[in-house]
Specification:
The complex is a heterodimer of chains A (318) and B (558).
Chain A: H1 2-29, H2 34-38, E1 40-41, E2 44-45, H3 49-59, H4 65-77, H5 91-126, H6 131-145, H7 148-163, H8 178-212, H9 215-222, H10 227-264, H11 270-280, H12 283-311
Antiparallel strand pairs in A: 1-2
Chain B: E1 11-12, H1 19-34, H2 53-58, E2 67-72, H3 87-93, E3 101-104, E4 107-113, E5 116-121, E6 127-132, H4 146-157, E7 174-181, E8 184-189, H5 196-200, H6 210-216, E9 229-235, E10 239-244, E11 258-263, H7 267-275, E12 281-285, H8 287-297, E13 301-316, H9 326-335, H10 338-346, H11 366-369, H12 379-392, E14 399-406, H13 409-423, E15 427-434, H14 436-444, E16 450-456, H15 462-469, H16 484-495, H17 499-515, E17 520-532, E18 535-536, E19 554-555
Parallel strand pairs in B: 2-11, 14-15, 14-16
Antiparallel strand pairs in B: 1-13, 3-4, 5-6, 6-8, 7-8, 9-10, 10-11, 12-17, 13-16, 13-17, 18-19
Helix pairs in contact in B: 7-8, 9-12, 16-17
Classes of the chains: A mainly alpha (318), B alpha+beta (558).
Chain lengths: 318, 558
Amino acid sequence: MTRYLLRRLIATVPVLVGVSFIVFVIMRVAPGDVAQMLLSGESGSTASPQELHQLRQQLGLDRPYHVQYVAFLAGLVRLDPGKSLWTSEPIMVELGRRAPITLELALLAVVISWLIALPTGVLSAVFQDTWIDYVFRVVSVAGLALPAFWTGTLLVLLLAQRFHWMPPLGYVSPMHSPRLNILQFIWPALIIGYAAAAILSRITRSAVLEVLREDYVRTARAKGLRGSAVVSRHVLKNALAPVLTVSAVQMGNLLGGAVISETIFTLPGVGRFLVDAILHRDYPVVQTIVILFGVVVVVLNLVTDLLYAWLDPRARYA
Amino acid sequence: MERNGQSPSSRRIGSSLSRRELLVALGGSAAWAAVPRGAASRAGRPGIAGTTPAAEAADEPPRYGGVLTQDTFADLPHFDLHQSETIAALLPLAPCYNRLVQYDPFDVGKIVPDLAERWQVSDDGKLYTFHLRRGVKFHHGKPFRAEDVKASWDRIVNPPKGVFSIRKLTFDAVSGIETVDDATVRFVLKRPMASLLANIGQGWNVIFPKDILDAKGDMKKDVVGTGPFKLKQYMRGVSLEVEKYPDYHVKGRPYLDGVKTFVIPDLNTAVNAYIAGQLLLHEATTESQAEQARQQVGARGVIARLTQMSALTMEMNATRKPWGDPRVRQAASMAIDRKEAVQVMTDGAGEVSGMMLSAGPWALPEAELRKLPGYAPDKNAERAQARKLLAEAGFPGGFKATMIVRRGQQFESAAILLKDHLGQVGIDVNLQILETASYYERLAKRDFEVYGGSYSTAVDDPDAIFGQNYLCNAGRNYSGMCVDEVEKLFLQQSQTRDRGARLQVVHQLQRAALLNVMKAVLGFRVTWYLYSGAVRNYRPHYTRYLAESREQVWLAQR
């Protein structure tokens, strides 16, 4: 197990280096740079080419690409990716401020996705091919089909225009006011959670259907056990393994959802930090966040594999 | 076409109309113009008609307290306004600062004292002496002195290494700033500059404390001014909140306890926040969103529709063939049906214009405009003439060109229209839509043939507009054109202190620029301002860069 873990951890290094290289190249190929943006207003820039050159020098953008790349990687190894070119703030400080927001949003979304997916998936399977099944299937397919930016915008419209209410603007920490914090987070979490629940619900349905056909379930029923007891004690327990693993992998996808939802619901999380950084061509910030997302996805995949082995003893790692 | 003002288009929505509102509704602009205060958009004043009629009509006494909530589309990169050019920085920070002189918040056609309580101009127009207010204190407790003005203005006019003074070129005529005593400061000019006060009054040109500038070199991380509000809290990416400065030098001001500016990048979210009552003020939105707000907010809100100091343009790269040929540029300009363009782009609310704000005092009269290429009333005849010009230039069958366009609904729809119009004289345009960062890079490198875009300036003044957009060394002269006559007339108007005489030269200047088609100006943009009916003493203007301090704003009981 330890050897397996080590092997997997070592394998993540080239993956992350590859990610960092790709994102570095993409950002440099994309036209526009942060110096231009810093000296521009709503109507462009009145800065002279000399001033632009001077600012680029000041920001270190005039250095050869390979020097910039190696310096960035060296910073990452020291866990210091440098400062934002846009705000001159240390990136780690900014990430430290924003990461808890995205994490809270993602965790809340996971909880919501479970609350939606488990009952709908189980009921869909138990009442297979009845109207209950059809309704839940339509709901879950809708969740897969509707993009988060659309449902998010629609939700804001509905709240504001129908009820003349909107989640409080800005960000309130849960330490400061748990009630306001939940009021802010519940809506974007619902949007992301609903999208994630769609897949989970389908997986739950399939897994439960599979287990329902097992001999031990038939035996339990033959012994006279109530239907609900069969499902809760025997079916659900055995069907949860794939649901859990998919859920863990989905945490990575939730980060993508956060990028959109944080913008619509004005939450200053990592997702919005990334969007702003891309628009400003804030290279080190974009590179750091993409690598961070990469690390999260790699780690979640690893955790998923380990979790699977723990849940299903038949799975073994050499 | 109304020349010296614009139709007052703001309205309080709802069933209860005050006498003043009723006049507006019944009599339109004529009745509105008769209202003495707030109706600022008459002769010589490019300001927009007053838009908070309820407050003045009822003669309510100002009420103290409350926090004004407003929004901006992006977070600010830093706090140093001298080094900024985005409204995202100015809007939240303006309440913390003063300038030497300011624009009257009720009528931006007037320059009124700010930190300078009075000033004198020498006979030759080359020496401005400002007498400063006494008893003014910065937010960190230090008294305001002439040395603070000198330190601030030295870095605007002659920035030290590492400081990027965005408006340095605007003050090219200023050779130095001198302190006479603690309360007197002089601006020494190389040549007369008729627009000096107008440009000093721009929202960006605030006075910073010398001690902080000396210690830190910039104000990127400090907000210390003499303004009516001081920084309370800044949450990056979330909001910037300012609170009342109790030692503010203007007795009885400000009325508000604070101003909170939220960062809301999504326009839909911002409008919905206004509808939900979380924003009391939302500036610069689109017509469809204003309409949504109107339907939802009803009598609780006010909507103002204003032409902005932002011209929609098409520009041709004169350093590339065949655009260096004035006949080709004239033909392109003649192909454009500006009336239709304005109709499409502003839903008929904008106005065809030359270089200067159509509703402002410097605009060319319509009769003059009609004589210039692209403005003739008979579009068919003008397009026939354009085809002839192209044939003379060696393109009897037209030619192909690529136009780069900034992403955004307004720019894109304008570009589609331009493609159609240019096609009618044989210029086959291929559109290339770019996001903002790529678009500006292409402009800065002059890596384009034609581009569709816009230009805005903080003030409706020829020095600012031509100085930033049309002169040979202007930062936004992306087309690379350099016209001697324009350079000469620019200097002449800038040095002419008599307003009437200057207006004549400005008209000549515009004619020269339009004949050379330095930019094909289509019209000026229109935008909508939404604010709660409780907001009093607030006036939206043709630009958002002049009077955003909120010193005079107060909130009625809601």
